[in-house]
Sequence to fold (431 residues):
Amino acid sequence: MISEEQQDQAALYVLGLLEPREAAAFESELNANAELRDIARELREAAGTVALTVPPQPPPASLKRRIMREIAIKTEEPTPIPQERVRFGWIPWAIAAALAVFCGLLALDRVRLERELADIRGSDPLMQTTFYTLAPSAPAPADAKATVAWQPGRQSGVIRISNLPAAQPGKDYQLWAVDAEHKDPISAGIIRVDQNGVAQVRFKPVEKAEHVKVFAISLEREGGVPKKEGPILLVGTT
Amino acid sequence: MAETSTAQQMRDQEMIAQIGRRDQDAFSALYDRLSGPLYSLAFKMLGDASDAQDALQEVFVQIWSRASTYDPEKSSVFSWAVLLTRSRAIDRLRARDRRLRVVVESTAENKVAEATDASTVESAADTANKKDEAAHVRSLLNNLPEDQRQAIELAFFGHRTHHEIAAQLGQPLGTVKARIRRGLLKLREQFRT
Fold:
């Protein structure tokens, strides 16, 4: 018997919406459960059906010629010439030994490179920054947008907003960080846009947010609220 | 429905088997059958003709090179190709987002290029049939409860994670997951009847 939770995971899995770790766990479950595989297949077919809702747009004929040319080239690519059978059985062993030595050297080199990379990351603020692109949702104008540059190590960031009209009197825009470790979104402060619909503001969430998945902007009462109440206007992830 | 009937699915599987044996005629036939809906999907997601063509080229090259790995137990050829196309389109949208981040200053919206080309191979009758089919499936989608339809559209066409969709709809994650699953299964059921 398949639980509703397993079915939900199956829907997200076929749409590629699970995190890599979740997807790997679900795949193990899938391998062991034929009924779950049937549900996943049904959901894949349903996803295929969704594509049929799109208004038809015929591709240009030139595209087919381009693609046929590319696969013809791929077909003509020379296949590796089979090597003459080696008479001496010791050669593969010698190659294996050489490879083992080479892998050892590579491992040492990797450790050195990782150390260097860690040093660079530590010294370059840009390397410690994660970027989020926020897109408008229903109540916001379609051309409104925002970009967040977030430094988890410093627990601070910068947001730039454009094309968002000033909030009406008695209201304010509020920024939220949706963190994997917190049940509710964490407030990252009030943001006021200028008469051109632009704002560039440095912010700090009110609580520690180490695993921010999403930033969002909502319309709230003037002065902001401790817990999100109003509609989301802009939302986005990395 | 022509796209996914059992007979059509069997013909598709046969074509894929031939493509696995490097049969360019079979590849050409499969292209003729699938390129319309796949291109339409890429165009809707990317909003740009040139990007949609590049995405479709990647998808068909992938079909050519991975035909032998296609597993009929997992999905029909059509759904497999749809999910490949969606995945390539999402990769392109993400790359576009990354470029946007580099230039933080707002850029002009991508212009939607001319949708059709004078050299198109499709006849007016084919186009009309496909429009009817799309209208029919769209009506099935519109028959779903509003909350399920909205969740499916955001999950399928918008490259949003379930966390983002939950945030955008202001709903708990569990509710959003259930809406996507229920909506998809209901759509499938309606499509079959």
Notes: The domain at 128-236 of chain A is CATH 2.60.40 (Immunoglobulin-like). Chain A is about 40% helix and 25% strand. Residues 4 and 10 of chain A are 10 Å apart (CA to CA). The first helix of chain A runs from residue 4 to 14.
